[in-house]
């Protein structure tokens, strides 16, 4: 009998994603969000941030890759929620930031769908709170 990868308690493969300033510039161009806090270190510090921060929606999308890669069909992710709890600080040091994502199937909603919760951290701090998705079994 094959293992049910959608069984409650199943861990999704953990993943780490580097985020650089170049990624933020690309995202700004694609999204149209050119807010100075996402590219100008001097401005970010002047408004009270430690440095440039990643766009919240970019962080959410990068973390969501763990879901779509695990399920194999992006259309199978029916719902995806997060709470932005801390910014991802992206220093201009040639390295940037690292987003670390783990996930687990936490609940069977019905015979076709499960709830998956994600833990998303950067620099040892949780950056997305209550990250949760409803995923359709493929």
Automatic annotation (TrEMBL):
InterPro entries: Fatty_acid_synthase, HotDog_dom_sf, MaoC-like_dom. Residues 14-118 form the MaoC-like domain. Belongs to the enoyl-CoA hydratase/isomerase family. GO terms for cellular component: fatty acid synthase complex. This is MaoC family dehydratase. GO terms for biological process: fatty acid biosynthetic process. The lineage of its organism: Bacteria, Bacillati, Actinomycetota, Actinomycetes, Catenulisporales. Coiled coil: none annotated. It comes from the Bacteria. One of its GO terms (molecular function) is fatty acid synthase activity.
């Amino acid at each position: 009998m094959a293992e049910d990868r959608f069984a409650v308690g199943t861990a999704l493969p953990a993943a780490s994603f580097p985020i650089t300033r170049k990624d933020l510039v690309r995202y700004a161009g694609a999204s149209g969000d050119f807010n100075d806090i996402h590219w100008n270190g001097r401005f970010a510090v002047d408004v009270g941030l430690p440095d440039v921060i990643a766009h919240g929606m970019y962080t959410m999308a990068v973390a969501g890759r763990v879901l779509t890669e695990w399920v194999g069909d992006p259309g199978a992710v029916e719902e995806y929620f997060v709470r932005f709890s801390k910014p991802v600080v992206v220093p201009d040091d040639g390295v940037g930031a690292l987003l670390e994502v783990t996930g687990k199937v936490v609940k069977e909603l019905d015979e076709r769908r499960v709830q998956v919760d994600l833990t998303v951290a950067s620099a040892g701090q949780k950056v997305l709170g209550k990250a949760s998705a409803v995923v359709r079994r493929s």
